[in-house]
Every structure is written in C-alpha cells, then in structure tokens.
Amino acid sequence: xxxxxxxxxxxxxxxxxxxxxxxxxxxxxxxxxxxxxxxxxxxxxxxxxxxxxxxxxxxxxxxxxxxxxxxxxxxxxxxxxxxxxxxxxxxxxxxxxxxxxxxxxxxxxxxxxxxxxxxxxxxxxxxxxxxxxxxxxxxxxxxxxxxxxxxxxxxxxxxxxxxxxxxxxxxxxxxxxxxxxxxxx
Length: 185
Known about the structure:
Layout: E1 6-9, E2 16-22, E3 25-30, E4 36-40, E5 45-47, E6 52-54, E7 59-61, H1 62-73, H2 85-95, H3 106-122, H4 127-136, E8 141-142, E9 150-151, H5 169-184
Antiparallel strand pairs: 1-2, 1-5, 2-3, 3-4, 6-7, 8-9
C-alpha cells in the first residue's frame, strides 16, 4: 500500500485507508477497528503522501522521514508517542537533525511517531521498496538498448480563438419585454 492511499482525517484519531469515492466525499476504513465511514467533502482529509516536515532549508516529505525512522529502528516500532516532550524532541532530532524547531510543534512530532508505529505494527508498508520504485521511474525519457536517453515528444496545447462578446439570450429577451411594456403603458 502506498502513502497516497493512507489518510489522516481532521478531528478523528488514527489513520484511514481510502476505499472509494462517494457522491459527497470519500469512503474510508479505519486501521484500528476496520470500520468503514463516509467522510464529507467539507472535512479536511490529508493523504500521508502530501504531508511534509519543515526543515531549516526545505520541506522533507513524510515518506522520507518514515524511511529515516525505519532505517534507524531496523523496521521495528520506535518510542511511544506518549513519551515526554523532551524525549520526543531528542528522538526527532536524531532522525531529522535540521527540522525547523519554530514551525514543527511537539504535536506534529507525536503524530509522525504515532503514524509510523501504526504502519509498522500492521506491516502495511515497506518503505524500502517504495523508495526503490520511485527511484526507478523515468521522467519523460525513453531508453533503448545501446542508445542514450531520448526525451518523449510532448503534445502541444491547442489554442482556441477567443469568442466574440455575445449577449446571452435572456438579456435580449429582457430588453424586448421592457420595450413592449413601455408601448403598452
């Protein structure tokens, strides 16, 4: 399972698996109790793939942070998210030494550690495999044996000539009705 299918829902604890698109939102399944729920479009839903951690120089994707924790812990669970704030900060510093201490709050660190432990306990995702898959994906290139890489041609966007300013029919009808009313009055 990829991080794009794993969701965090604002106002609800735990992680959820994307199941299906509904008419007015999405249907998700909880990893905790396997219950399915419909989540409306007005609720803030974030895919773990879209989340990043601020550092002093850039934003590090959550997948990379998980990889670093995975590597440090040899694929096992890490310390509890209920540990003291000082312990959590020290641990997070070992994983991501240049994280931005002003913009990354202790609540964010707790979430990251809780999410990692949840995924690790359920053996849902193998972060090393995912890293290899993304590294092997070529971007707009086709390689043939014995040849250098050649870029694929990109289709040009068609330009559409601008339409003349035409008043909608309802406006023309309204004008005629105003004229007929004036004559009858």
